[in-house]
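Minutes, structural biology subgroup

Action item carried over from last meeting: produce the structure token record for Transposase (Marinovum algicola). EB confirmed the sequence was re-checked against the source entry. Recorded below for completeness.
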Amino acid sequence: MASKKGQKKRFWSDEEKRSICAQTRAPGVSVAQVARRYAMNANLIFTWLRDPRFAPAALDEAETDTVFLPVEIDGASIDHKPEVVASPGSAMAQRIDITLSDGRRIMVEGPTALSAIVSLVQGLMA
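Output recorded by EB:
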């Protein structure tokens, strides 16, 4: 099947493939969800999962050394508590993907009030 006009074939580095395959191992996450996150076909991820170079089983040793570190944020304080529950008439989204100008991405999945996301982004920009 020929690709659509103007679309280029994407290239995934080995490290990206390992990262994408590792995301499928998270509890409650399906391969289809990960595929949608990267706008790709789930069959491609299943192909990578069968390849021993990218299979998450090879990553299990590295994951045992994973630790959580405390995070402290200095700077502007938030004067108000962000609204968690959407008020009647406010907009809700199931998935929000924001790409910042420096290439960083903010992804929020699940029912979320857009006003809460606006508060989050404003807090990050302060």
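Discussion: The two ends are 48 Å apart (CA to CA).
Next step: EB to file the record with the rest of the batch.
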